[in-house]
User: Which sequence fits this backbone?
């Protein structure tokens, strides 16, 4: 996945922290702590007034101890050199760090965009952020958001990149992964160009795209997708329902095969399109068009069957899949059974699919 949006300045602590802490990709807290544990060979030293604690020599710490003019000049020289060789870019001081495992009082030192030390009295830095009485948390990653995506005739999702990423920042998320929707007849490159153009300069947090494949032509599957995976767009989503988006079983299989060959992660929206159309037609004929009939048109078997089918197809191709927005027990049990059989099937849910 490619991260492309430059940081957009938000006022305050959270933004400063985000700018300087890399967004960990896997198990952020543990990774950051491990990284700090392995990288920190600096022994924390007591920093007293007039001294700078750093990896320099012991003698260098005794700034201001000289009494003669020469000593003083030397001390000033050393101090200036020390400032020039500031060991850290940023120290977040006095906060309470909350990790996945623990909560503890600790300072954080950052150099070149990475956490390099956790400890107390870490010394000097170009920027000191006072986090007294505050919690310091790893930035969250929301791997499933939709921004500025067309959703039916003339309808576009309410959040664009500016409002969506602003909302993410205020919720503590420093990376989001929205979807880039390929329209029928469009190449994936075109779709990506459009989304990048909309996102460019608008984002307040890091953004990377998943690709939604709705038109898996030979060209898309044979050339575009493998090239885009090479470029870093390593996750795809396919739909088993929705007009203009649903893939046939054959198309699902072909796309799964590309995911297998390229190592891309494949997400599947699993609902039975024909079953939904069958039920929807009958509901409409009976005049049942109020919003609540949306649920009636998608009873549990619609999702359970498609989930089972998606898993079976992925088993044929022998490729891992992720079933997205799982909304009922039946579908969840299909995933669990597949996992118990040793298949690499994952599932995720989100609150808006429960209602
Ligand atoms: Zn979604």
Assistant:
């Amino acid at each position: 996945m490619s991260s492309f949006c430059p940081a957009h300045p938000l006022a305050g602590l959270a933004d400063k922290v985000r700018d300087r802490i890399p967004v960990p990709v896997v198990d952020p807290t543990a990774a950051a702590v491990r990284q700090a544990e392995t990288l920190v060979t600096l022994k924390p030293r007591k920093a007293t007034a007039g001294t700078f604690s750093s990896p320099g020599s012991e003698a260098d710490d005794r700034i201001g101890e000289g009494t003669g003019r020469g000593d003083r000049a030397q001390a000033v020289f050393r101090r200036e050199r020390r400032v020039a060789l500031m060991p850290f870019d940023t120290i977040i001081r006095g906060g309470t760090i909350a990790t996945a495992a623990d909560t503890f009082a600790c300072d954080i030192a950052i150099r070149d965009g990475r956490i390099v030390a956790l400890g107390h009295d870490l010394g000097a830095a170009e920027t000191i952020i006072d986090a007294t009485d505050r919690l310091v948390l790893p930035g969250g990653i929301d791997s499933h958001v939709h921004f500025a995506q067309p959703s039916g005739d003339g309808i576009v999702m309410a959040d664009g990149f500016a409002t969506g990423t602003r909302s993410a920042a205020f919720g503590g998320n420093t990376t989001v992964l929205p979807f880039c929707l390929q329209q029928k007849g469009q190449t994936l490159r075109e779709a990506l160009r459009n989304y990048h153009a909309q996102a460019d300069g608008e984002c307040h947090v890091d953004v990377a795209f998943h690709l939604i494949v709705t038109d898996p032509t030979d060209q898309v599957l044979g050339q575009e997708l493998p090239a885009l995976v090479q470029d870093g767009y390593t996750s795809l989503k396919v739909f088993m329902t929705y007009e203009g988006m649903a893939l046939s079983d054959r198309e699902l299989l072909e796309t799964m095969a590309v995911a297998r060959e390229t190592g891309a992660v494949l997400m599947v929206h699993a609902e039975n399109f024909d079953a939904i159309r069958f039920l929807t037609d009958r509901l409409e004929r009976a005049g049942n068009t109020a919003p609540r009939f949306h649920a009636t048109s998608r009873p549990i078997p619609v999702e359970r069957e498609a989930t089972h089918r998606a898993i079976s197809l992925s088993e044929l191709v022998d490729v891992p899949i992720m079933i997205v927005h799982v909304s009922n027990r039946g579908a969840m049990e299909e995933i669990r059974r597949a996992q118990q059989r040793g298949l690499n099937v994952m599932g995720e849910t989100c609150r808006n699919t429960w209602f």
Notes: Residues 45 and 122 are 7 Å apart (CA to CA). DSSP finds eleven helices and 15 strands in the chain.
